[in-house]
Amino acid sequence: MARSGFAEFLVARRAELRPADVGLPEGGRRRTPGLRREEVAVLAGLSADYLARLEQGRDTNPSMAVVNALANALKLEGSARHHFGWLSLTACQGAGCPGETPPEAEVSETMMGIVRALNPTPAFVLGRQLDVVHWNAAWAEFAGPLGLLDEPDRVNLATYTFTHPAARRVWREWDAVADLLIAALRRSQMRWGADTGIERFIEELCRTPEFALRWLRHPPSGFTNARLALAHPVHGPVTVPFETLDGAGDHSVAVWLVEQTTARTPALRLVGKRAANE
């Protein structure tokens, strides 16, 4: 039986913790890193057999009391605990899960109008799988030299980050961007649990070892707002704040606040001036 994200997280988190982290003696050499299943079961007040069923995906409906007990045993706090709770709510498979509706094929006129109105601020529309499905002239001008538009038939932030040869040079904090994108895909997977297209896309990305390794770590942060540290081929090193605004349907609007960097990087003013004339 395939593991849910909840089951994967349980196994990954148990492997991360050391006995000393939870007040237990080391107890000599261990065959595998992390806590033993029996240790977590005792800490959570569960049977080892029940925990095994949760970790193997044979039980996908834990009560909130069980989820909270496991969160305490695994020392989860803040965003990690929130992420764990959401995973427990979407641990089911099949028809009972959210997201049975197929993805929206077209971007609404309203959303496209918003992106156009934001020009000369770079902005674009994101789909379920982090596809960039619509953008304005300012974003095209800024993102083009980064290589993001090298394959215009499918512009995808995750594919670019994990497979494009320039990505590790462009993202000056590549690790942080990689984790943000994986967290965003986890969020999509939870929101649209029955969308087989998302599952196929994740399977495709898991052929890249770095993605597969990070996917199992379950970075808890969401892809809503942060800063992108870029080595831009035209404008040099810049740090660009961004915001992602979720829409009512499948799509969201992402805004790169390039204008906030212009005081420190005068060359960026040219991006806004040229885009405004298009």
TrEMBL record:
Database matches in InterPro entries: Cro/C1-type_HTH (IPR001387), Lambda_DNA-bd_dom_sf (IPR010982), MLTR_LBD (IPR041413)
The chain positions of domain HTH cro/C1-type read 34-81
Q: What are this entry's molecular-function GO terms?
A: DNA binding
PANTHER family from the entry? Answer: BLL4672 PROTEIN-RELATED (PTHR35010)
A Pfam family (short name) is: HTH_31
Q: What is this protein called?
A: XRE family transcriptional regulator
